[in-house]
Amino acid sequence: MTLKNYLTLMIVATLACWGAFVFVMNTVNPEITNWLGFALFYSSLFLAVSGLASIVGFLIRFWLLKQKLAFYSVNSAFRQSFLFALLIISILVLLANELFTIFNVLLLIIIITLIEFFLISHRKKHYEK
Predict the structure, then answer these.
(1) Residue ranges of the domains in the chain?
(2) How far is CA 23 from the centre of its chain?
């Protein structure tokens, strides 16, 4: 897949995810919905934020930081956007369940940072073989 095809596909998919999120926001009433309504809300928001962060992260890496190989920029941007979206959704779930505290957010950030470090070290070990 070429870089142009990837970016086109990511932009179209991200716009579709934002459209799905807006649709869920307008149709699901959080006061009377069941677990499916909340699952649709959080999953559509997760995919939309992940797609947007992936595109923005790639553009920052590729144009501003002038990284040489686009594959590494795409790979890092997608991985970090996934973790960023996970952090955002986790914070929203904490807020919805009235468990949001600074300690919980710091704990989430530490856990996600450790996951990122693990994935970076695992990737380096994989490429060294």
Answers:
(1) 3-128
(2) 20
Write out residues in the chain with pLDDT < 70, as ranges.
67-68, 123-129
Residue 11 · residue 3 · CB < 8 Å: no
Q: What angle do CA 98, 103, 106 make, to 5 degrees?
A: 115
Q: Determine the Cα–Cα distance for residues 124 and 60; give it in Å rounded to an integer.
A: 22
* pLDDT in the model for residue 83: 96
- Alpha-carbon 85 to chain mean position: 3
User: For position 89, what pLDDT does the model report?
Assistant: 97
Q: Enumerate residues 6+ apart whose C-beta is below 8 A from 15.
A: none
Q: Which residues of 62-83 are buried (b: 16+ CB within 10 A; e: fewer)?
A: beeeeeeeeeebbebbbbbbbb
Q: What is the 3-state secondary structure (H, E, C) of 58-75?
A: HHHHHHHCCCCCHHHHHH
